[in-house]
Amino acid sequence: MSIPLEHDYIGLSEAPSMERASDKISSASSSTISSESEKSTALNLRETELRLGLPGSESPERKPQLGVSLFGKDLEDKTNGYSLGSLKGFVSGAKRGFSDAIDGSGKWVFSVNGGSEVDLGKGAVLFSPRGGNGVKPLGGLDNNSAQKSCMPGPAMKDVAAPSSPKPVQEKKPQASAANEHASAPAAKAQVVGWPPIRSFRKNTMASSAKNNEDAEGKSGLGCLYVKVSMDGAPYLRKVDLKTYCNYMELSSALEKMFSCFTIGQCGSHGLPGRDGLTESHLMDLLHGSEYVLTYEDKDGDWMLVGDVPWE
Amino acid sequence: MSEDRNEMPEPEVDTRRREIAGVLTGEFQSPSPDQVLENVLENVLLFLTSRRDRNAVSLVCKSWYRAEALTRSDLFIGNCYAVSPRRAIERFRRVRSVVLKGKPRFADFNLMPPNWGAYFTPWVTAMATSYPWLEKVYLKRMFVTDRDLELLAQSFPAFKELVLVCCDGFGTSGLAGIASKCRQLRVLDLIEDEVADDEVDWISCFPESGTCLESLIFDCIECPINFEALERLVARSPSLRKLRLNRYVSIGQLYRLMIRAPQLTHLGSGSFSSSDIVAQGDQEPDYISAFAACRSLVCLSGFREIIPDYLPAIYPVCANLTSLNFSYANINTEQLKSVICHCHKLQIFWVLDSVCDEGLQAVAATCKELRELRVFPIDAREDSEGPVSEVGLQAISEGCRKLQSILYFCQRMTNAAVIAMSKNCSDLVVFRLCIMGRHRPDHITGEPMDEGFGAIVMNCKKLTRLAISGLLTDKAFSYIGKYGKLVRTLSVAFAGDSDMGLKYVLEGCPKLQKLEIRDSPFGDAALRSGLHHYYNMRFLWMSSCRLSRQGCEEIARAMPGLVVEVIRNENEEDKDGFEILYMYRSLERPRIDAPEFVTIL
């Protein structure tokens, strides 16, 4: 088994493994692939799969079930019986810590089941495409990976291979790494008309959750869709705020969503080192230059995103 | 054939008419013994209301056929394309109430392109001239235009009841016409329709003098209404018993309506939240006493944007409730428990799975009279977190022994729980289980869900409606074919291994009338195995299965009394490919109003 790619977690060497990982996933998810070839591709790619862990820790046996969660929240906190058990197998591999690799600000801490949510969230940000190291948007397997790291997120249906649910299940942990933001921008490959809920009911639940957000009432599970517009873009988008756990993810997702409108590449791979966002960070993260995230509050004032705690 | 309407010759109506007219006006012409018998029969048949009984009566002999046709006042047409308006009107001359059903149920889930058909226009046009005394119209999944409503309002002076379920094509301007012109209107029920916002204040269109409104249901209307007009309307409708408000009515407004109408028996509470942010010191109305004043309230629904703090307001009525619909109310276990512990008489309960298994356990502990339970998912996606599971189902089966109808959405299920329900709830008539993950097996044993559903058909001897899900092999279908002798409606999705599955059902279920299948591996051979039965069915729907066009053409050739529609996806270029087979028996030639993406073989 070759030594996993450990060096230079930022930049090109990281991207291929991510891309291969995503290739594996997208090819596996295509409905024409038999489970055999899924396995073979899985084997090949596992070797190159990016694993991260605390510095100096041992690399564990690579098992598909124990996926790497780069982004998983601290699972101990969860009271929901979320099926994130697979993500708990957080690798304690002999990996280099991030702090070496990163110039400038920011600690890059990966914790094994004890880390803070925010730190893991930062991990998420790192692996979103910067400077053109794009993780391919995945057609098939944009499934509950987005969910794995936080409260119920948008459903990405796995249309592929309804006859092979098991391989798909295994892929999810790996998928989560790659798909975290690839899947965020748009719900892909939903099965039409399944589950069989009338659109009136679906729309009602969505809109009432949104209204609860506006009003003083509590909003429960459900979606929290807000409109996002970018100056100069021909159309607006809607995002479900519930799929994100912090501002990092939101800004990355928005960036991806609107990346098609930009010409330039993201400049820096710099990591945000603190919880809150400052204006300069935003400028770095989003298209490297001009864009800043703002929102209009109840009073109609334009506010900078990031000042108020996420909750 | 059970409901053939063209086997018997058309009755000789004119002679009969004269005779009846003669009897009515008192010009007594000495009738023949046959005519006496027919008169007697007609008078007796007036009391016969069940349409199945009436269908049986009409098959006895010609004279009984005539008598039945003249005395049938409630016309039920389960598929608007099975018979033409003209034919129905020619047979049944004295109809007061019409039920029409249009699109197949799977169209609700966006499986069919829009504009498929089911237009009300030809019906209302024909009835306008032929049924002057029409009083009631009930439409389900029909396309109804504002013009249709206008014509309806103008044509029937005695019109009393309009019920539209899952319909679309009209807007508030059509409603305005109904409100203003139907002076005898007692019932205006709009249930899960898509109503366009024409920005017409239809509430103000009701007559200014008192109305005879007994039921006003508009909770599906997704646009604001003129509340002051509604308040005045309620005040001048002393017969009002059923009022279901839409989500644009706040709880404060609800209060104002309730104190004007304490005689309500059915209440849809609207948003059940306040429109403005209520500050700490504000005096809120006494909601509890408003509810307490509604001593006759038995059915409660709404709660569209519920603020759970207001829930205690309904405590006073819980003990009398027989029907409670929380299916739009995002409440948790504790909040549900606080309410359900009072609801001992509850028979119908709809709820969101946000209440979790524990909430269902509380229901099972209290609601011993429960007949119908529906558990909807708050997060209707395949891979979401499922707060309810086999635990809730098991609890319900143990606590609610009189259960007759269940619809249960979940993410995981076990055969054991389904088997337990089959044994505990032997009165089950409707069993619909939707395991939202496709092909999902028993999550504890890993086995298919065959045994669970098998137990249901085996043990629930009264079962007429079944919806299956989860990982299912042909074995499940063999059980259904073997034991499901009373099953009339069967819904199948992502199930089965081979043609045998469908064959078992088509060969084994003599009462099968409505069969809807999607994404299951059934092909032409399976389709052929039902040839003996298709004339007894209302329809067959198969989408994304393994059918070929030739197979469908073969059926169309073999059965001239069937209309075989193959429906393409609108975007699909391939003119021979199709997504959906929808076929139904019909006395008419194939319809001419089919859109371009529908091919009738």
> What are the secondary-structure elements of chain A, in order, as H or E?
HHHHHHHHEEHHEE
Name the chain pair whose interface involves the most residues: A-B, 40 and 48 residues
**Helicity of chain A, as a percent range:** 25-40%
SS field, number of helical segments of chain B: 21
Tell me the radius of gyration of chain B: 26 Å
What does the main sheet of chain A amount to? 2 strands, antiparallel
Tally of separate helices of chain A? 10
Give the integer mean of the pLDDT values of chain A. Answer: 50
Percentage of residues in DSSP E strands of chain B: 15-25%
How far apart, in Å, are the first and last alpha carbons of chain B?
23 Å
Coarse structural class of chain B: alpha/beta
Q: CA-to-CA gap between the ends of chain A? A: 44 Å
Taking pLDDT < 50 over at least 5 consecutive residues as the criterion, the unreliable ranges of chain B are 1-13
Strand content of chain A: under 5%
Rg of chain A, alpha carbons: 19 Å
Shape of chain B: globular
Explained architecture:
The complex is a heterodimer of chains A (311) and B (601). The longest helix of chain A has 18 residues. In chain A, helix 1 runs antiparallel to helix 2 and helix 1 packs across helix 7. By secondary structure, chain A is mainly alpha-helical. The N terminus of chain A is likely disordered. In chain A, strands 1-2 form a two-stranded antiparallel sheet. Chain A has ten helices and four strands, in the order H-H-H-H-H-H-H-H-E-E-H-H-E-E. Chain B is of the alpha/beta class and 601 residues long. Helices cover 32% and strands 17% of the residues of chain B. Chain B contains 21 helices and 23 strands. In chain B, the strands form two sheets. Chain B has a 21-stranded mixed sheet, covered by helices on one side. Chain B has a two-stranded parallel ribbon with strand order 5-7. In chain B, strand 14, helix 15 and strand 15 form a beta-alpha-beta unit. In chain B, helix 3 packs antiparallel against helix 4, helix 9 runs parallel beside helix 10 and helix 13 runs parallel beside helix 14. The longest helix of chain B has 13 residues. The N terminus of chain B is likely disordered. At the A-B interface, helix 8 of A face loops of B.
